[in-house]
């Protein structure tokens, strides 16, 4: 993971987040931070380590991430127009997947389905963690009667990083009503309850781990990594006693995940450099 360009005015944390929250590949930025753990940061989506990072906002107490700017350069301009603080003045960001999502929503309201799909495909391709984008894309494909395309979009939502949003009910409904499939992710969703927390046991974690193992065995390493980070994201929010019953240790997962990323992506996602 590398950051190109002059960013001397910004102060980056020396340590890259180890996951699952903040997600691995997130580097916090001091400027613009609201405090109490809420801050902006660089973020490289899983599998996009060779690309330029996005700038995302972390809402610490909510355990939630949100895409804010398409590049660190746009973020720097936003800081400048707001006198270096968190402000309400926005700057143009024509490459922003968030902007494309907003434009797609306008097309949907106007009944312009083709235009909405075009915007959504572009946004989700650029930023694959765009949960609301995948959900809206799946629904618009259904609207057109393109069921296979809707299933593919819904599947992508399940694989996107859940720190940016849990898959919406509509996404799960599309996959649960899909024809029986040999695809392990679709089969997983059709068996899971997607109800986390507040219970002494939860079979969903075992189902997810079995799917992860199947993906590794099939050579689908990126899918295995994506499911692993989502499973850990949910497990990390469970009680200590629940984690112990599951045999889950966060530090062990972090070390294993970094090693897997190094082997698969040629980058352990634990450090970044500047050109």
Automatic annotation (TrEMBL):
SUPFAM superfamilies: TPR-like. InterPro entries: TPR-like_helical_dom_sf. It comes from the Bacteria. This is Tetratricopeptide repeat protein. It comes from Stenotrophomonas nematodicola.
